[in-house]
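step=encode ok
step=design start
structure_in=
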């Protein structure tokens, strides 16, 4: 009887495990046990991958011999793509390609040139072996994403170049998910978000923001709008460096658009001057009256009539005399051209490289019930404020190195405001010609508004030597890559991102570096422990086994 009970129990357990195995493929789950959830992906990214309409292929060009830091980045990319592949139900495939793995130098050069043309710049990898031998190799830390015959390159080596190489790699690792997911989203989803670029107040013209216009048109349905009564048809508006007064009617339409849950990006210059007169002895700078300050006050921000100087400055070309029969041209730091590389932890600006501003004004917040205010960009430790009206002249270059003058650190120059607010026209009549019955006095939906104290961050300058448009992504004087376009596009993505994909930029991977001094001091000890201890334990256990066996048979 006992035998049959045991047999039945065994059969029941066996059948249970067979049942579990049959149905296990229908139950999918993954558990991320890491402290910072480094293997988890954003819910918006999950939805994007689960709803892929067709196959996506990702070619990653970070392969071949790499140092430890880039091997770490490669592993992070592979882990992210493994997760993408699982979440896409097999619709996403990837492979790693070594761009240097060619026997024919001509084919290698041609292949590498094609990668660069697809938007993946090369990086020179310097490495030092244990015996001190230095090696140099070109690598391409990026990927090419293909979908239905379309291809787009994405650079995966990002981060703030003011940080150490290890920190920059870590920042790149934190951004891998968003960089890949945002490009996939752009390729597989049709453009549906509408952006209005406000005109009619002497804002920047199309030829002055060529680079931004191209990027925006690739992602959004862009319109240049003068009749602001049409703003309700758009998901976000951009006001880029206005120089003429807003009429009360236009201000009312902006107010009502935002009251109804609209989104806006204001790039504001508060000080006007004739910059061509600066080399001719200086120019008098004074504030703009744009007739919009009361509205900005209402939402909780004040754009100050001042200019910021910073020791972290860009360069200005000046003729300092003659060298023989030729002009002696020098590049000198100009404190009004500011390198902004201090950021908050908000996903718009997290792990970004430097943003370049020219003639920047500071921003202050004021009480505005219902509005949450988040600073985004800051000046460096060594900055100062010059109140306007005032004289702006080249003599101020002489003061750049006077540390004691730059005693106003971390001035905020960009703010994000989110929430509901009361209309500027809640207790007054609307402008003439507008039906009061259509007026909305308090927010019906939450609005998202970004205000920046500089309009030049989006403006393409003209090179005076060749008349060519200069990129807002590169400073030719310092040879420095810039994040101006990335900042603007991230801002618009956040304003119009209903899915929350940009929140993937919040991923944080904690650096846990080993103590290099301790490694050198205790290297031999740990080597002996790792090699000798297992051998010693084996010998002890073997001896104990022999002794016990001998004792047993002696009986």
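sequence_out=
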């Amino acid at each position: 009887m006992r035998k049959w009970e045991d047999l039945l129990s065994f059969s029941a357990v066996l059948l249970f495990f067979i049942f579990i195995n049959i149905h296990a493929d229908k139950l999918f789950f993954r558990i991320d046990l890491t402290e910072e959830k480094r293997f988890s992906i954003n819910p918006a990214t999950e939805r994007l991958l689960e709803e892929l309409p067709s196959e996506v292929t990702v070619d990653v060009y970070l392969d071949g011999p790499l140092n430890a830091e880039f091997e770490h980045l490669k592993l992070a990319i592979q882990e992210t793509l493994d997760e993408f592949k699982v979440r896409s139900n097999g619709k996403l495939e990837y492979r790693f390609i070594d761009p240097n793995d060619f026997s024919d130098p001509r084919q290698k050069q041609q292949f590498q040139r094609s990668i660069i043309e697809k938007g993946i710049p090369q990086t020179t990898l310097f490495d030092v072996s244990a015996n001190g031998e230095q090696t140099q190799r070109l690598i391409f830390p990026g990927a090419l994403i293909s979908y239905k015959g379309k291809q787009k390159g994405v650079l995966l080596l990002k981060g703030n170049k003011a940080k150490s190489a290890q920190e920059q790699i870590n920042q790149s690792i934190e951004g891998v998910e968003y960089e890949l997911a945002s490009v996939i989203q752009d390729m597989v989803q049709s453009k549906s978000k509408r952006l209005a670029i406000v005109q009619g107040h002497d804002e920047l013209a199309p030829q002055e923001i060529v680079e931004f216009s191209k990027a925006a048109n690739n992602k959004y349905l862009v319109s240049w709008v003068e009749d602001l009564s049409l703003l309700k048809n758009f998901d976000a508006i951009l006001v880029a460096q206005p120089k003429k007064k807003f009429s009360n009617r236009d201000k009312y339409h902006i107010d009502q658009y935002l009251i109804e849950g609209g989104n806006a990006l204001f790039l504001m210059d508060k000080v006007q001057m004739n910059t061509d007169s600066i080399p001719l002895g200086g120019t008098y700078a004074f504030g703009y009256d744009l007739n919009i300050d009361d509205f900005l006050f209402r939402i909780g921000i004040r754009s100050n009539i001042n200019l910021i100087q910073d020791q972290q400055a860009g360069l200005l070309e000046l003729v300092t005399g003659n060298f023989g029969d030729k002009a002696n041209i020098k590049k000198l730091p100009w404190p009004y051209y500011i390198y902004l590389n201090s950021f908050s932890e908000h996903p718009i600006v997290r792990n970004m490289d430097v943003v370049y501003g020219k003639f920047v004004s500071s921003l202050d917040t004021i009480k505005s019930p219902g509005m949450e205010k988040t600073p985004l960009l800051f000046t460096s430790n060594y900055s100062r404020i010059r109140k306007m009206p005032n004289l702006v002249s080249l003599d101020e270059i002489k003061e750049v190195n006077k540390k004691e003058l730059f005693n106003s650190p971390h001035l905020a120059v960009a703010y994000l405001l989110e929430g509901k607010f009361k209309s500027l026209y809640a207790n007054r009549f609307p402008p003439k010609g507008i039906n009061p019955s259509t007026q909305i006095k308090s927010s019906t939906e939450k609005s998202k508004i970004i205000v920046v104290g500089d309009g030049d961050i989006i403006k393409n300058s003209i090179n005076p030597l060749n008349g060519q448009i200069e990129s807002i992504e590169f400073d030719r004087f310092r040879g420095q890559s810039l994040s101006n376009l990335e900042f603007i596009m991230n801002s618009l993505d956040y304003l119009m991102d209903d899915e929350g994909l940009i929140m993937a930029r919040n991923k944080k991977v904690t650096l846990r570096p080993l103590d290099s001094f301790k490694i050198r001091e205790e290297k031999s000890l740990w080597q002996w422990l790792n090699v000798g201890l297992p051998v010693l334990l084996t010998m002890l256990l073997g001896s104990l086994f022999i002794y016990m066996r001998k004792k047993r048979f002696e009986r």
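step=design ok
step=annotate ok -> The chain is about 30% helix and 25% strand.
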